[in-house]
């Protein structure tokens, strides 16, 4: 088996340029359709499990509120 024979076999297995473009288009359409924004994911979480969603939001807000002073103190201690 030489390089020419291998290239001929590969071209039979691989799609041509037109089919590759179609596959690529369908793939990107599927990826775009499956992407959701972060706000959309939060709204879905609140719609499905409102208590857990509100608890996660409260925990996030609490961690932001606590981590800022802790960060300042750690910067003073380490700095």
Explain what this protein looks like in three dimensions.
The protein has 79 residues and is mainly α. 87% of the residues lie in helices and 0% in strands. It has four helices and no strands. The model has no long low-confidence stretch (mean pLDDT 77).
Radius of gyration, in Å, reads: 26 Å
Number of strands: 0
Counted by DSSP, the helix tally is 4
| Main beta sheet | none
The secondary structure category is mainly alpha
Question: What is the average per-residue confidence, as pLDDT, rounded to a whole number?
Answer: 77
Q: Please bin the fraction of helical residues.
A: over 70%
Listing every helix as H and every strand as E from the N terminus to the C terminus, the arrangement reads HHHH
> What's the structural domain tally?
1
What is the percentage of strand-forming residues?
under 5%
Pick out the low-confidence regions: none
Oligomer: single chain
Gross morphology? elongated
């Amino acid at each position: 088996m030489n390089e020419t024979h291998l290239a001929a076999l590969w071209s039979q297995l691989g799609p041509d340029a037109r089919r590759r473009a179609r596959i690529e288009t369908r793939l990107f359409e599927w990826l775009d359709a499956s992407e959701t924004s972060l706000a959309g994911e939060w709204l879905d979480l609140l719609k499905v499990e409102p208590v857990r969603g509100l608890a996660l939001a409260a925990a996030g807000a609490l961690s932001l509120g606590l981590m800022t002073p802790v960060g300042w103190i750690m910067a003073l201690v380490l700095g």
